[in-house]
Amino acid sequence: MADFAYAYAQPSALTHTVKGNVLALAAYAEDPPTGGAACFFSGGLANSWLAARGLTTLAKVVASRFVPQSAALRDPIVTAGAGLLRFEAFSSCNGVYARLDLGPEALEGEFLASGTTNVDFNEPMVNALARVSRTEPVRLQVGEQQVVLERAAGTVTERKVSLPERWIKGLTAVQGYLAGMEERLTLTKVQATQMLQSLPAGTLRGEYYLLLRGPRPSFVPVASAGAVRVGGAHRLRLLDGLLPLCENLRVYATPDGQASAFVLVLGGGHEFVLALSAEANRGFSGEGNQLDTLLDELPTEWITGANNLFRGNETFNPTLFALENDLAPEVVDRLCASLSAMGLLGFDLASNHYFYRRLPFKLERILKLNPRLKNARALLEAADDVQLVGVGNGGRTEVRVRGTDVWHTVLVGGAEAPRCTCQWFTGHQGQRGPCKHILAAQLRFGAA
């Protein structure tokens, strides 16, 4: 998997001045600056201690890894727009997504521009955040444009990091899961603390289910009515420093139980989101949950037009957007999936809105970052690699698809979910998106 090389003109730092403390986050945008404001936001934090606790928890998520061989990464993404600052990051294993939202109530400053950057979260800055006191004023500067793509030897001190493409793939999967989630539980501050206390000790293998037994939340290993599936529930210990500070905790889950999310309402415009993949050893970047929606290509001008509109609006509700523009919901879903596949869209559970990230608009990323879809299209280039066997009762279509060494049998259409005889499908049973053989059959014969 390719990486993008980044360099910072200076490290992030919390510095002391006569006017108070200033938190300066050195930032890099994938495209070089084109002029305009020197930073995205400059101003104070209404509750610097609470904001620092949220950023410290975000740093803890970034530093964590629940798969031993995963690479260490620690540079979150920050988006400024629509009056909010959103800090996003993944655990190093890519199976935990975290976001700290600072809304208008949490900020006392000015938005000079909208934008998205990768920020330098270095160790001295993280340590300084941990020492911010309850009454200590801190000013925040985000989006500084004094950055370079390559080292300028002798003129600046810079720190190089790598931003893997799997982060963009992870953002795509998380957006897809969050947009399909339903609120399942609302816990008070006391219940949120009890939830963490009820976690069994150690690393939890297999699935656990969160439910309310009377007023008290608990985790059990067996599913029951109203329970929320939480894979790798021990990962929730990342929230131990924030849960005692929340006003309430809302628990969300996808209908199929493949992801869950915990939204901590911290008050004063502060909100923290933690999303978990279905298992501790599953990274979001490998989910493929948007592949079905990306199956049929949209005209380039449609995607470009939607990008320009959403970039200007910065947030939008998909249902209202469909009604206002007389578009079918499935078309809006395909537009959102296409933009999300480039890392351009996130989803806010609290407002039920998408938000826009100002990353480069690169259509080639849709196939580049979805190799199963790319390989499925390649199978269609040969006339006999995807062959119709027949259509059975109930509209079930049987297709033969050439594999690396053998032919695979694919069943698509009808009331049942698609199936394939390949190793990928056998191992995952469709829970991490369709295999390339199913995608090829659907592309050739239009059977969904």
Strand content: 25-35%
| Beta strands, count | 26
Reported for the largest beta sheet, the result is:
9 strands, antiparallel
Shape: globular
CATH architecture of the largest domain: Box
Q: Total domains, how many?
A: 2
Average pLDDT confidence is 85
Rg value? 23 Å
Helical/strand content category: alpha+beta
How far apart lie the N and C ends? 30 Å
- Please give the share of residues in helix: 10-25%
User: At the third CATH level, what is the topology name of the largest domain?
Assistant: Proliferating Cell Nuclear Antigen
What oligomeric state is this? single chain
Q: Return residue spans where pLDDT drops below 50 for at least 5 consecutive residues.
A: 1-5, 32-37, 144-162
CATH class of the largest domain: Alpha Beta
What's the structural blueprint in terms of helices and strands?
Elements: E1 3-7, E2 13-17, E3 20-25, E4 27-28, E5 41-45, H1 48-63, E6 77-81, E7 84-90, E8 96-102, E9 107-111, E10 115-119, H2 123-130, E11 138-142, E12 160-164, H3 165-179, E13 182-188, H4 189-197, E14 207-213, E15 216-220, E16 228-231, E17 248-253, E18 259-267, E19 270-277, H5 300-313, E20 315-316, H6 318-324, H7 329-340, E21 345-348, E22 353-356, H8 365-368, H9 371-379, E23 386-391, E24 397-402, E25 407-412, E26 419-420, H10 423-428, H11 436-445
Parallel strand pairs: 3-11
Antiparallel strand pairs: 1-12, 2-3, 4-10, 5-9, 5-11, 6-7, 6-10, 7-8, 8-19, 13-17, 14-15, 14-16, 17-18, 18-19, 20-22, 21-22, 23-24, 24-25, 25-26
Helix pairs in contact: 6-7, 9-11
